[in-house]
Amino acid sequence: MTKLIKKLGERLSFLQPYQVIILGFLFYVAIGTMLISLPFAQKHYVNTVDNLFNVVSAISTTGLTTGALSEMYTPFGKLILLGLIQLGAIGYMTITSFFILSSGQKLSSYRTKILSAEFTLPQEFNIKQFIRNIIIYTFTVELIGTLLLAYQFHSLGLSKCLWSGLFHAVSAFSTAGFSIYNNGLENFRDHLGINMIIAILCYAGSIGFIIPMDIYRKVTGQSKEITLTTKVILMITAIVAIFGTIFYLVSGETHLLSAFFQVMSASTTAGFNTVPVGNLKSGALLILIIAMVIGASPSGTGGGIKTTSISVLYGIVASVMRGQTQNITFMKRNIPYSRIFTAVAASATYITLLMTSIYLLTLTESFSFLELSFETASALGTVGLSMGITSSLSAWGKLILTLTMFLGRVGPLTLGIAFFKSESKVIPCKSDLAT
């Protein structure tokens, strides 16, 4: 198998790394759509647009669906979606590279370039060690999450507890937000155990694979201190969680646990809901939109602009206000101009795509501007929260959101680089802040 993977890599060596990433995801979307369109994968006929939508939602770890999965697909169909969720979370290049490393072979320089393009890492990180640790970390966390959730579901007297625990653990860690229950997690709104297990799994995936590896390096003495990237991610994540929950409550929603959970779900781009999102007040919806746009962290399973890019933007604003236009700083550390350019470009393309998608939906759909804005922010951020309009969208509306979800997963800036970058080399930036 590793020889086949290597041969395939040699045949694609004329492509730029970002082009390989995009083509890889398109390939799995095509395969997933064909598999889930098989008669024995469906409980009843599901049209091609809906199948494509749900497959892209899975591979992009979004969680938006055109209907209740339990009513649309058989166990085989749901297993296909679960596999796509896992694949989308850790990346197909990561899995194939792990097989190569496990067989004792070395990664080619071309494959290393692709991985460096897919994962933006601090300069002192070794990409090969990083790949191994991603796989170990992912399956360890998901196994623990599966057992804990299965126990909680069993204590409530639910059937198929192990399957439910596995599905929701993978979905949570992958920040996909898919649920096999028709109303999501609304039945568990007041269950502290399930809420906290899901939240921990979502944060474990969304903060990125950099942090656990960084902590491991610190504990084992491989590094003297944790990187700036880890500090920034933890700080921004905590700020969004705390202040997001406070503002959510101020907007008129009074249930503390559900307030925390919904802000967590939006900021990690998980997309689980314990309350009917369509019934929330405008203030709470605005907080969730902001959290979805900020998003998760680099080299993790979530989407959005990313916490590190937000920190760079804040550093620019704060430095300009202090009159320090020559040296942009954050947490008393200088930010290299290459990181500044990347963060600004990524944020600008993200907002441009968000506005474009909203505009296109206003041409094809009759829902309110708030509903369309929320749905689009959720799709582009690969979140999966919805005000309940997804299944009622027109075919054109579903196709627009399908493309939006795909671009949210690969990154609009990645798409631009893939088509317009004149050189095939990926030159890593020498910085301890990943963006």
Please give the alpha-carbon distance between the first and last residues.
Answer: 34 Å
Q: H/E element string?
A: HHHHHHHHHHHHHHHEEHHHH
For the largest beta-sheet, the strand count, sense and barrel status come to: 2 strands, antiparallel
Fraction of residues in β-strands: under 5%
Strand line-up across the major sheet: 1-2
- Structure classification: mainly alpha
Q: Tell me the number of helical segments per DSSP (H or I, 4 or more residues long).
A: 19
Low-confidence stretches: 423-430
User: How much helix, percentage-wise, in residues?
Assistant: 55-70%
User: What is the rounded Rg?
Assistant: 21 Å
What's the rounded overall pLDDT mean?
A: 85
User: Can you count the beta strands?
Assistant: 2
What spatial form do the alpha-carbon principal axes imply? Answer: globular
What does the model show?
With 435 residues, this protein is an all-alpha fold. The chain contains 19 helices and two strands. The chain has helices at residues 2-11, 17-36, 48-59, 69-72, 75-90, 92-102, 109-118, 127-155, 161-173, 192-206, 210-219, 228-250, 256-267, 282-294, 307-321, 337-364, 369-380, 395-410, 412-420; strands spanning 329-330, 333-334. It has a two-stranded antiparallel ribbon with strand order 1-2. Helix 3 (48-59) runs parallel beside helix 18. The longest helix has 29 residues, at 127-155. The two termini are 34 Å apart.
